[in-house]
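Can anyone check this?
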Amino acid sequence: MAEDLMHYDVMAQEALRGVIRAALKVARDKGLPGEHHFYISFRTDAPGVDISERLRKQYPEEITIVLQHQFWNLEVMEDRFSVDLTFSKIPERLVVPYAA
């Protein structure tokens, strides 16, 4: 098999991160219409992920969050997003790089 000197896999991953970033911006600016929702899975042990120790102990490798009705303070940056959610009625702030 030929060597991928263009690194198309890296380009594809970056393009998909752009889709996530754009969709989160719509949710931030306009809310989620109807029954739209996002399932977002990420590595909790990835560099730059900022979650509480309680969540890190419960989800040491990966977590899936759902953004639908109850999320607050969604911030969308070029390389990451942050959001407030509740877990077992405890508010949590999550900071998640898209690379996670």
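Reply from J.R.: I decoded it. DSSP finds two helices and five strands in the chain.
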